[in-house]
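Risk register update: the risk that structure generation would not scale has been downgraded. Supporting records follow, first protein first.
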Amino acid sequence: MRCSLALLLLAAGAVAVQASSGRALLQGSATCPISGCKDANSCIYNSDTRRWSCKACVAPLVPNSNRTACTCVAGKYRTSNGDCTNCPKNFFCPGNGAGKVVCGNGLITAKRGAVSKNNCVNPPGYKYVKTATTVKAEACGDNTYSLGLKQQPTCNPCPPGFVTDPDNNAGTHTSAAVCLAAPGMYMLGDTVVPCPKGEFSDSFGRNTACTSCESLFGQGVTTATTNSTSKDQCSWSEAGFALVDDKGKVILGALGTNPAQVVAGARPCPQSYYCPGGDPAVAASQPTKCDTDLTIVGRLWTEGEGATSDEDCVAPPGWARSTGTTVVECASGTYKSTWDNTAACTSCGSGVWVSNRRSWITATDAYSQPTKQFKVRGSSESCYIQPGMGATVSHDADGNVELKAMVCPANYFGITANKWGMVATPCQACPANTRTGFNSAPAQYKAASYYTTADDMDTAPNTLSGLTEPTEKLTRDGYYNVTACYTKPGYGYYSGAASICPMGYYNAGDNREPCTRCPNGKSTFFEGSTSLADCMAYAAGYGKVGSAAALCYTGTYNDGSSEVCLPCPLGTTTDVTGATLNANTLSGNPVDTFCKLCAPGYGGSSATECATGATTAAKLCQDGYYGSPSRTGSDTACATCPTGRRFTYTYTNDDVYLPGATSRYGANSADDCIADFSQTVDGASYLPLTLRSAVADVVSLRGCVDACRSAGTCAAATFAYYVADTTGSGAAETACYLWSPKSNGAAGSGVALKTMTSTANSQSVQAQDMGTGIWTFYAKTGAPEPALTASGAVDITTSIPSGSLKLSECLKRCASDSQCAGANYAGLADATDPDSAITACFKIMTQTTASAALRSMIKADYTKFSPAMFCPAGQVSKADGSACVACAADTIKPMAGFAKCVACAADTYATADFTQCKPLAFCPPGKTLDSAVAANARFLPASCSSCAADDYKALAGAQACATCATSGNVNDAATKCAATAAICAAPLMLDPTDKSQCYIP
């Protein structure tokens, strides 16, 4: 009440003021008559006009133009609750209290909040039409469209060629998407083009391709023109095709002849018809026969289906078109492989070619059903040559290349059965040194008759006599198998070829047998022998033993000129028994022998380097190499010993030691290769030695081993990875100690140290720590050896039975003990005999304390692989091992080492230096061993002397001279008895000027 009274008082005051100036401010009124006026101070009464006005309205209202009301701004209208809201679409709101006004006449607004009629536009699919009295929207017509919303006075035309579907509803042409390709057209990029021939389109659309007739009816169906609008227009046939009805039958006549006949598709034009294609109602477009009877081979055919014109009607293979429609069959000896109108068939070639119907062609009816097959001479495969014939490349009179068929002449053979096809098939020459038609050549491999080009193939063939002249060819021509080729005399047959009978063999010939070997150990004096009578000499590779012949044993040979086998040069050997001359042997050998392999344990860059008296002296394989007995051919070098053995140690990171390899002189196997330094047991392993020689400034195991290797007397190296500080620096130190066994002890005493293989030896049947069986010996060490501690020398003498107390048994006991590094023995009776008795045996034991800082490596010394002395060539160790002495008579030792001297082979003798054996003298014909020398020929170079009077010797060798039957008839050379006539076996003939000799005519 207090508030209302105050307002009335204020209003009354305002009215009094206005009245004094011509306008009176209404005061004391309870309500402003203008709805939405902000407050009483904003609502003013004008007494002159007697109207109220409002100068400020409550937001969002604003005074109208004359301030008589509060209204919304343009683009908005006032709702029933007094708020302003955006003018809705398709209306405009001019403001000033006008409210919302509909656009009308089909016009719309693009968005809400329109402020005037100018915001009314045509909708999509319409145009904006303005008349004198009004504006309105009109729907776009055919082939036009409108995006609308822009007061467009006209609709947009479709692009050239595009149209709209006439069945579209009014106002639906709202974008270019309504512009389509008309029936019979399709879109190609931004344009429309007519459907090509054979395709159609039956609707409006934006299709980018037309529907092909082929997709509906199959290949061969097309339309008459382009721009087709219906599948019913797919009624024409393409060239080479015939229409078929709904039963799959070819329509051979005009379409519609049978009222029920409709096009259901097409198929390739039937064989022996041609189909030009086109309108099926036109006779010229319908399938047409090539000839009247298509089941007869002597007619014009088409090669297959799909012919398009009468030019495709041709003579089939095996037939030629002579004139008009006449065709004739190819005669025997000719063929025709093509479907064409060639007037003549092709000749197989010159000579006695024949051909036969061999190719098949098939006739089909109008529905592709086979009706008949015919055999024709339809390819070069119809041509053939017959058994006993060949075909060679030749030239006709004009120089053109052709194949000539011929009956194979004497000493040749042809094919074994008919050979079809025109392929060069020359007659095959009989293998070298064979021939046909002599003696008993088998008739079953010879053709008796042949077909000729004039023959009727259903009758018997002509005889060979009609094809070959002169008459002699009847015997030796026309063979068709290599089996008909028989050897010439003096030749043998081997694996399809004939070879001259070598010395020691013979063959009478005209057979297919190998040469017959002379009786065991006998031979001939020449190749090509034809009878047993020629076996008069000793065979190469054999020698006379007593009164019989026997094979030369390995390491000896005979070239056939001697009665005895000769030893191979020292350092070489043979790989077979019965060795003889070989044309490929090395000329550097002292004799041209079959001794072309290096003997086991020998080696060089060639076998000549293995042979005594050759380019270099005989070479035993040296330290670190071996010469295998399995080498063959040019494999003559000594092989490097393999390595790969690993010795480990667990004390520090200095774990793996990889040794080198050494071997004895003349080693002949990789099993002879041993590690040059070895560790008895992997892991912690050292020898408990009391006498040690320290080496200064060596800080590694390898350095310590190298020091032992350089020291000739060193037998083992022990490396200390840790010793107490001796310098006061506070750091741990290392040390290297070398051990050399005592060498001034009692004779017959010694140390034998175990050796290990140079490879991992994983395949060995023997444990790796058992050693190789090869020992490094140090003589006169005393027993027990003073350098060994009590723990390092274990006496096992009493554990060995007295009858078995031998060096070999002592070493065996150590080998079988994995911790035994060697043996210390005494009382050895014979240093050259490992089975010699001894008087004491101590095992040298390796210590294997896991935490020990000591590691011992034992050296293998190839100069000490025997308790005997290492002696030079020609000398051998004495039994007590104290000195070297010369080899005994008739024995040799070619190289330095421990080997014993070996005896020379029979019929050889040792040289004065006992390093090689040489053969006894081999005297030429007419000479024999001097009787004064023969007794001592084993030691002295033999000499030869001429045969005595009336004696002769025809062959070279060591045999004695023989006496001629008639005194005084020996020739000057003492090689024959001139008056003794030789008996010559065929084909040898007696020499008319020297009747003791035969010669090969």
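Supporting record for the second protein:
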Amino acid sequence: LNGFEKWLGYFGQTTSEGRTQRIDRMHFFDRTLFVDGPTDRYTTGYHPGPAKPQLLNTFPIADGALPSNDWNLQAGIWSVANEEALQSDQNIFAINTVNRDAAANYLTEANLKFTAAQDGEDKAGVLAYYQDINNFVLVGFDRVGDAWYVQAKENGIDTFQWQTNGGSVNYDVYHKIRVTKNAGTFDVRIDDMIPPDFSPVDTIFTGAGLPGLFTFNTAGAFDGIVYTIGWDEFDSGVQGWNEMAGTRSYGTGGVTVNNGYVHKGDLMSEYEFSAQVYQVSGDGHMGLAAVAVDGNNYVNGFIDTAADELVVSGLLGGTALPEQRVSVANKTDYNLRAVKLSDRVIFFVDGIEKITVNETYGASLVGLASWGTSARFNGIMAYRTEPDITPASWVKTDIGAVGFSGTIDYHDNALYMTGSGTDIWATSDMFSFLHTDVNGDWEISTRVINIDESDYWAKASLIFRNDLSANSAMVALHVAPGSYGNSIAQLMWRNSAGEFTTEINVSNLRTAFWIKLKRQGANFSGSYSTDGQNWIAIGTATPPLNASGKLGFGVTAHNNDRIATAVFDNIALIVPLNPGTIGNSQEIYEDEDPAPFTSLESAVGSGTISYQWQWTLTPGDSGSWANLDGETNETYTAPNLNGVYPEDTELFARRKATDTASQEGYSNEVSLKVIKVFDTSGSGLFIDDFNTINTGDVNWEYATRQAGGAGRSTYTDHVNYSIANNALYCEGSGVGIQTTANFARYLVGSDFELSFKLSMNYTGVDWVSVYLVDAASSIWGANDFGVHALGPGNAVAFYINDLSLNDGANNLHVISESEVETALGLESGGYDKTQEHTIQLISTAGTGGTNSYNFVVDGATIKTNLLYTYSDDTARRIDFLSFF
């Protein structure tokens, strides 16, 4: 229970069902008790089960760390053992806050006991409020002083309230401490009683905070922890209402609102809100501002005292809702209740459901209002509710023609399921099924805490089915209540659709116990355990089931007119780990930031997946892999491998995946070629003397084709070529050779020079080009930095790019042999293309995306101020191309 609601449990007798156990909600209309009942599953209207708190911890989990999804450790050594939360450090002020939304109004409670011998100043209890180490409230036991106490530390200053227990408390057994925070006031109950001489504690802490647990110089155990956002106030304890319009005043009978509106509380998405409202003077409207998001989004439920009607109206996105009215009794006081759900708001008057607004509103405040009259409000209660939760990647399906649809809820690390249906047995099944898709081998286990005795053969089950049809082939491991507390475990299978089932039974077991269903290839096995560690085989079977199918939990009442509830905890699903795949092999300079190593396929395994990136210089399983510190995300978003590798090398990375079941696996490997930064202070950014005849692996020949410590010289082989006598020979039409090095980052915004020596001594050479090209490898148009050398016998010596010509895509200057001869001071015919000439393209950095360059042959400047663009350069590579 959430601590605010009160429920009445009883037995009911009907002619159709006989004697049944029931519960119904209890309300207090100020001081008048009202029970919403008798009700059953056939009763129309809104009659929910007990509302969940924001946190309920009974720790039905394996021994280990306190779950971080529920707790924020502040100090101490906290753990879970034997389904209790433990704090074991006896030399510290240990505190632990709940990992939930902070609130200004809430209820929190915990059961606690001391677990170590008294050895000093031993204190433990509930951390009633925590803001920081100088602002908190403690409610607990002082074992040395044999007293209860409240300590409020406000801005570092302590105040205390305490009283002796008079030797009546055994500190070695559990005691419950409950604290409510209503605005800045804290109220306390110990073992559901007001502590001797206690009075509510008023503090400055009117804003939001978090509750939790604490020990001081002692060890302690905690269980049954509850945290619910909300408040329950009456009489002079009503407080914290903020005026928005009109006036409000407090008294011994609650709060009076005069022709205005007040609001209170934390933003809540789903909640219940109720108050007893009294007409103080004159006719008008009085009631609840049930939903108060903003001025364009609200819902009001008012009593029109002149018309004796409940009036519901409001705005949604600034558009008025249709006004709804319904008659109510002619009285001067009413109990009004509003329930806000995700898709509707329901209004009750004196416990009777009256009007529903089928609209969706966001998180909101609540308020009290009166218009044209004064109204007094007392017995005001509001609390946040939580919707049922289906675990991610799981789906609930009703199999067969069930009498009542099953429900699913997962909280406090346990799965709560309901189901009707006739049975899971024979040729066809009828039950509620929570399932996920699996393929291949798997193992699933759980502890069955409860299965209602709706019938001797009601079942709480682990099930694998080929499909969701009622007669599907399947294998299952059931727990049935049997009779007189002697439960039954049953391994069952159906070989094909519609075939009669086969079973193996183990009787006389005591709930709660663990069950495990396992698939390994074609073999299925079932077992049970009394402690979750030591397993006893029930049997094995080999039904010819599909490799992929639906695996999960089932509940049947074995009576289609009834509903059975089952509770499963300590759930473990183990599937073989698929470590996933990664991508984006790349090459960088050692001072560059690599692109992310991407996750092409996430790892899939049992429970939560954790990752660790690793690297090595020796790929394969024999490599010496080392962890990359701090790299534990699915994607390696910003590789920074400087310092973990030698210069001028290639390293390899992979991703290690580990699941909750401690299975480990490794992705494929990706490579990172790390290139030494070019030496721009010495002989050149890029030098290739073609000092090798090795033409085997020119894509990564830095080791044998490197010149004097300068930048690498690597080429991509397009067609035929040869290297000899420290020269590159292009020996066929269409020969193209391009560096794999990208020089763009060194060229943009910098002065640079591209120079080479060229001779054309093959008969029939049409032209040879040398260009800085982009990733598309094109030599025209946008790749506008380079030269075409025309072959022997052609009166044209060169074509040179120049964007300033603006004469089309090519923008080429035509330079004749005679123009070159003039620049070189040669006689006509003196420029011999078969001889070696030095060609230089000398660039000067420009602005606005354009550079200029000069064209030089054998030291003579042929053309100046040629223009080319660099604004869109992401790649620039040296490209040689020849045509015959």
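The helical segments are 744-747, 817-824. On this basis the risk owner (M.S.) recommends closing the item.
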